[in-house]
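Summary for the steering committee. One of the milestones for this cycle was to obtain a three-dimensional model of the protein with NAI bound, which we needed before selecting residues for the alanine scan. The sequence and ligand used are listed below.
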Amino acid sequence: KVYHDSDADLSIIQNKRVTFVGFGNQGSAQAQNLRDSGVKNITIGNRDDDYKPKAEAAGFTVKSISEAVKDAEVIFLLIPDEVQHEVWKEQIKENVADNATLVVASGYAYAFDLLELPANMSVVMAAPRMIGPGVRDRYVAKEPYPCFVSVEKDPSDNALPVVLSIARAIGATLGGAVESSCREEAGIDLFAEQALWPAINTCFREAFNTLKAAGFSDEAILHDMYLSKEPAEVFDRAATVGFFRQLKFHSPTSQFGQLRGTKNNDGTALRAKFEKVLHEDILSGEFAKFWSGAFTSGSSDLEQLWKESEDEPISQAEKRIGLHD
Ligand code: NAI
């Protein structure tokens, strides 16, 4: 189901006391969009970091997170997913009104049960498929952008009009907001990050290694693979004319090679790997548990993984040709 401006009553959110926890990519964009949509009572809850003066400079009232959520009727939780459970537990949980509405912009924390919620709290999702500056720029230019919306927890039986009002106020119903769910949004997002893109990244890594082993030059391989920005062109066309149909812009030799090569690739092992990652790691909640724990204890492997990626032959080749140091 797709919701449009005509499905939403803007006055619902205009008359609420709204708090944004976080004034980063999404928080700054959505708070400004809401204000320009006539929502008068907006408070920003932010810790004492570089984002706080930005919120003040933009003309908002800024309080500590625990103070800002106190009498809010609607709370946008717009801080990074991996810190939400901790901030919720330590600064928000004890201070929120029991019947407030929580708005998330990603399904992660709710889908994997990372927030301890008061019994009467409603939970909705308004998740732009768009970076924060895009959410703001498109609102100002009156241009549409894609967004998922959902009602997750609705003890008052009144959350749908609220989330539609919010979606309209941030500019998300202009082009149609798509009904989804936290589980679906987080599942697809994490799947792309942990299965689809790793598979694509592995293809590029091994393509480089294969061509390099054949004695081809770094410059030639990297230019052909992506420095030309051809992959960006391909995905751009895929989004407008279709995933396979964009091949019509390639030469007949390329079309034949790609269609035959794809058809002949046995995807069974990849599919089995994808199923495992989706069900055993992601939808089971195992990844969320691991990642939240890693953040709380400060022991994520991210830095080590970055270091290893720098040692890959493909990264070394980029260095040799002067792409980076
Ligand atoms: P961000 O990284 O821009 O968030 C910065 C904000 O979080 C600042 O206000 C900062 O003070 C606060 N913050 C960071 N760490 C904190 C901590 N430990 N304690 C208290 N406050 C802390 O986050 P972003 O990108 O705006 O993401 C917010 C939500 O929006 C997430 O749920 C994300 O998944 C979702 N989202 C993000 C999109 C994007 O393109 N960035 C797109 C759609 C959804």
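Key point for the committee: The pocket of NAI is lined by residues 22-27, 46-47, 49, 51, 78-81, 83, 87, 105-106, 127-128, 131-132 (CB under 6 Å).
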